[in-house]
Amino acid sequence: MEAILDRVFGFLPQRIILWVGVGTLVFILAFQYIYSKLTEILKLPWMKEENQQQRKQILQKNNKNSKQN
Asked: What's the superkingdom here (predicted)?
């Protein structure tokens, strides 16, 4: 039984390497989460989707009015 376990776990790296990998993964995920939240908070008004839609509606109204005149 020990021989089988040695064969299976023999391919795994040392425990410290696994912990460094897990720590790096957690750090990267946390950084991505913080970055996405900051970009959402710091968006300029013209970059927001609802403002883009309002702008399109205003432009369409202006185009219709200019074609009628």
From this structure: Bacteria
